[in-house]
């Protein structure tokens, strides 16, 4: 009989009972189709029948047990010969990566004679008629043919096992690569947003959103701790901020209680709790089945906590997830540290500006409040001209500092109640350069210096100290020149009362395009109602963050 084409189904590597049973059933049918005999399927030690086949081998205890044991241990086909024209074939079958069974069946090696049936009747305790029926349905196999076909079957099974193992490993590698790619994308998304201008809250929301895409979790949260008390100039958290994404099982209070309960603090590593921990009676977060918590730190500073909780498949969190969260926590902590350092530097600069402004006011008490008003009028004109937010902050600070050079002017000249002589006026004209020289080494104020140096330049080139004309004059100085002139004309001086509003505006109209930039004067008139309110309202002590007081936050 010629060997038949043999296709063995791939073994199942999911260890679940239904899938193993399906593989067993499939192999049982394939063996029957290819050999024409229904095999018995045994455990490798022969102690359990997994699927029942056909007589006559079921009762051949001794030779059958030998075949099963040999095939199971050696993992190769085994043939047990019999003197009554029958042989028993035992085939090792791979069920999973760990489990095997042995398939056995009897085959005729010649046509059976009557004495063979009688002998088998006694040996197997089977009816002769039943044996005749079974024999008539069987083909005759030579031992060599049966052996070669059995080897072919065995090699086919081994090939299927190797193929499935490789496919399984490829799937695992692919899954790992996919997870690694998602993790890299998450880290990349966070690093791409590590900008001082990006708030902790904004970066935190980006990280949480990407985290839920990368790790199979039901929810995640970030708690950002306060970094300052209420007395701040620039944006700073003065109370804890709690951000969540996905399923929310915490609020700020319950999360704080959990951190305290777990005794987590500065210097702790990732905390991982899985079901064996969270099932304890004293666990205070019953809605949390699994959780990872990592600190957001930079140097010796703790800025908050990052938490991921409840695996979507109810599996345990391990080192992979913990390390990824720790990396994200480190980046968020460094970002918070950089922002806080930047804020502290800006707070220091704000203190310097306030000190200089106070020194100016102390030097010339008759113009006390002038710098603050010029600063606010300049902001309103710049806003009317569509200048961006950063420019508004710069021009406000420049307005506060524009008369810093008056610190270097003789008190007798600066406080003179009457009109100045030409010589005294020449001294006054030195204050822009004096102010510039005082401030020029402060790099944080470099954007303010053009206003300090050039706020007395004129559009027609007749100003000082450089005699610049037109657009040679920096925009910030052109705006401040109008604001400075408006407040100087409008305010009382020791030698005169402040001019009426109508006269001030008449002078501004006449000087537009000659002394001042026409566009700046036009912006003044568009915003003059607001500017009148600014001029009438004393608001010294405003935060240097223009956005805050323009939104009505008021003085700090």
Describe this structure in words.
- The protein has three domains: 17-166; 193-335, Beta-Lactamase; 364-550, Hypothetical protein af1432.
- The protein has helices at 17-35, 61-74, 114-124, 128-136, 143-192, 200-214, 252-261, 275-278, 319-363, 370-384, 389-401, 411-414, 422-428, 431-439, 449-454, 475-490, 501-511, 518-526, 528-536, 546-550; strands at residues 40-43, 49-51, 78-81, 86-94, 100-108, 217-224, 241-246, 271-273, 291-298, 301-311.
- It contains 20 helices and ten strands.
- The strands form two sheets. A five-stranded antiparallel beta sheet has the order 2-1-5-4-3, with helices on both faces. A five-stranded antiparallel beta sheet has the order 7-6-10-9-8.
- The protein starts with 16 loop residues before the first helix and ends in a 6-residue tail after the last helix.
- The chain is of the alpha+beta class.
